[in-house]
Amino acid sequence: MNKLITIVGPTAVGKTDLTLALAKYYNGQVISGDAYQVYKQLNIGTAKPTEEELDTVPHHLIDILEPNEDYSVSVFQQQAKILIENLNHNSILPILSGGTGLYVQSLLENYNFNDIKPNIELRTELDKLYIEQGIEGLRQRASKLAEKGGIEIRFTDKHRLYRAIELMCAGDYNALTNQTKEGLSYVGPVIGLQRERSDLYNRINRRVEIMFEKGLVDEVISLINNGVNPDCQAFKGIGYKEVVQYLEGLISYDACIALIQKNTRHFAKRQITWYKRMPYINWITIDSNTTEIEIYNMARTMIDTSL
């Protein structure tokens, strides 16, 4: 099996610093597991590594698409698999740094994807069901369909339930029965970083302020002036959609900052919930007394005992 070190955790927890330190020590290369860092020109709002960081350690799956192009978890999985294979073949240790839970999990657990496209009409119907009955309504709908196919649906994530219902309505039960395989696809630890909630939220709030200081609004204006459609997938990321609202006069400047901070905190909470469902993660808990070198040493111990 190929080797892979994985670093996960909510946004602003400190993944970048640890990933870079480990990559330098192990002479590794970084694979981004972020759904929005793939886009060129989206730098500030995605907290993309700096030019200096990119020059210091080779990174992959960053700046590979134009902003108006679409990206998906299945494409990410396919690209990441090839990268991991090639890096291992050349005796280079790949380090996956992830914030998008589905992307990371699909790779580690080898999700089985297919060519069935999203059913817009069905998804509109499911949106209504979710608003009226919540996750339980989706679970009941999925369970009834699963009974017909003689399978069992155990997950409770909204997006996975949408896709499961979509696949079953299209008659593809095999994709669900083979959704994951036992064990993980790679050798190496999955390391999770976590902080006290108040500390994490303070870091998020400050990060958003820094984004505005660095010129997030100007970045969005430049993108739009260069022909990027405000309705494109890239602009659905937190930070960009709110700035578009500000530029359209729907919210004030201060309200825009506050909204991005709130949405990012909510996103971090969802990330934490997602990762807590992945039992193979080895957690490093960071408090006010934890130093960077302590985090680094704990991670190195996990890696050295796993490889």
UniProtKB/TrEMBL annotation:
Required cofactor names: Mg(2+)
GO molecular function list: ATP binding; tRNA dimethylallyltransferase activity
Keyword Nuclease attached: no
Sites marked Interaction with substrate tRNA: T100, R123
Signal peptide bounds: none
BP GO terms, sorted: tRNA modification
Enzyme class: transferase
Residues binding ATP, per UniProt: G9, P10, T11, A12, V13, G14, K15, T16
Keywords noted in UniProt: ATP-binding, Magnesium, Nucleotide-binding, Transferase, tRNA processing
Catalytic reaction(s) noted: adenosine(37) in tRNA + dimethylallyl diphosphate = N(6)-dimethylallyladenosine(37) in tRNA + diphosphate
The EC number(s) this enzyme carries: 2.5.1.75
Residues that, per the record, bind substrate: T11, A12, V13, G14, K15, T16
Function in brief: Catalyzes the transfer of a dimethylallyl group onto the adenine at position 37 in tRNAs that read codons beginning with uridine, leading to the formation of N6-(dimethylallyl)adenosine (i(6)A).
NCBIfam families xrefs: miaA (TIGR00174)
Family note: Belongs to the IPP transferase family.
Subunit structure: Monomer.
PANTHER family noted in UniProt: TRNA DIMETHYLALLYLTRANSFERASE
Protein name as it appears in the record: tRNA dimethylallyltransferase
Species this chain originates from: Veillonella tobetsuensis
